[in-house]
């Protein structure tokens, strides 16, 4: 006999969703999070995790909605802000992405996310060399989140593939091509 999600506490459901996400058990991840959010719609971390799960599945509109809810409920969730910025880029919303990422570029921001946000914004601005510098710096600083480093390494590889790290300034269109190619590949692996 198996227990349904209704027999678990909110905390248990959240941790089950994290475990399922780590195992790439997408159906279980979504089920646990949707059950939790039906009971507790103010659970910002669950909205964040649901947003990343949607992004992994390539459901970018849904990802943006969930990440936006997470930030509305807990503006201090810097990683949710960064992920929302990336998702907005993937949706072809560069101005909204810049607005989302801008708060992470201040001195008050966590240094890892500050470096990554500056790197993504440099790509948008067409400065491949600065993007590479910021992304490499962020990877060097980040010892707590290897998955994020893998994502940023993938972005660096996309930059290098398009030869945008050799000081050549790409057009805005080339910068968006890098971001979109990276995002679609990273979230659909």
From TrEMBL:
Record keywords: Electron transport included? Answer: no
According to UniProt, the name of this protein is: Tetratricopeptide repeat protein
* SUPFAM superfamilies to which the protein is assigned, alphabetical: TPR-like
Keywords in alphabetical order:
Repeat, TPR repeat
Record's superkingdom? Bacteria
From which organism does this entry originate? Pseudaeromonas paramecii
UniProt key word Repeat: yes
Instruction: Write out the ranges of the repeats annotated as TPR.
Output: 44-77
InterPro entries given in the database record: CellSynth/LPSAsmb/PSIAsmb (IPR051012), TPR-like_helical_dom_sf (IPR011990), TPR_rpt (IPR019734)
Task: Name the Pfam families on file.
Answer: TPR_16
């Amino acid at each position: 006999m198996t227990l349904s999600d209704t027999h678990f506490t909110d905390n248990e459901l959240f941790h089950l969703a994290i475990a399922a996400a780590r195992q790439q058990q997408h159906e279980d991840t979504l089920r646990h999070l949707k059950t939790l959010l039906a009971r507790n719609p103010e659970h910002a971390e669950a909205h964040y995790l649901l947003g990343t799960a949607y992004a992994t599945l390539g459901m970018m509109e849904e990802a943006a909605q969930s990440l936006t809810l997470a930030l509305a409920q807990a503006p201090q969730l810097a990683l949710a802000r960064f992920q929302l910025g990336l998702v907005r880029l993937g949706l072809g919303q560069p101005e909204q992405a810049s607005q989302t990422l801008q708060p992470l570029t201040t001195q008050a921001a966590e240094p890892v996310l500050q470096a990554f946000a500056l790197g993504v914004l440099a790509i948008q601005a067409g400065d491949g060399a600065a993007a590479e510098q910021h992304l490499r710096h962020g990877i060097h600083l980040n010892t707590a989140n290897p998955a994020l480093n893998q994502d940023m390494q993938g972005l660096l590889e996309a930059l290098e593939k398009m030869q945008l790290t050799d000081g050549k300034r790409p057009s805005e269109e080339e910068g968006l091509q890098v971001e979109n190619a990276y995002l679609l590949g990273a979230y659909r692996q």
